[in-house]
Amino acid sequence: MPDLRVSIVQSDLLWHQPAANRDMFEEHVRKLSGSTDLILLPEMFTSGFTMEVDGLEDIGSPTSDWMREQARLSGAALCGSTVYKTANGHVNRLLFASPDGDITHYDKTHLFRMAGEHERYVAGARRVVTEYMGWRILLLVCYDLRFPVFCRNRQDYDLVLCVANWPAARRHPWRVLLQSRAIENQAFVAGVNRVGEDGNGVAYSGDSMLVDFKGHALIDREPDEKFVATETLSLKALENFREKFQAWRDADEFSLPQYD
Hints:
Number of helices: 6
Number of strands: 14
Radius of gyration: 17 Å
């Protein structure tokens, strides 16, 4: 059963500067090369959480091509979201690029109406679990974390990756929800957020965390701090816990036909 080295990159973001943000994160990826298996970047890591989609440089392939190349060079998967233009409109697209050149995407399903995201972006229509190094990984973007039915483990994942631009004003719910999703789903949860202030004057405290299946924080730092941290996750430990504490066997059966 393979271990998985997961790295969180918590950073400030340059507002609407895709190329500059890619250059910044490329330096982090280069330093992590050979020492990790998976690198997690924030939501809309090339632009900040923006509703100004028209004319934004990072539309379509630049970031996905960049992620493929960085994954190949570093030998680690890269995961982060970006503004992406499709035939049906713009989406908030989470990309998971593996070192072998494969790329999986998940389009954010729950759009944050309090910021008007539902008016500028098209919602995703499917729940996505991808496989990497023997791990089954559920992909989420920010506001998705608030919806436990959508996040519910149907014994189909071992790790949740949630990328976010989650404002400092709501940092307490962010932290509690990361731990709650881990405990109730008996899975590891990695959540990455940004720090600094965006172009709309919204402040972000970070609070990126990596949480184990009991809700214990494996990575956790003081708020407002830029950092890069790596932790090794044990699939064997997770499976042993699930076998010992079989709460999953008593879970209510349900389906999400609109997303399957």
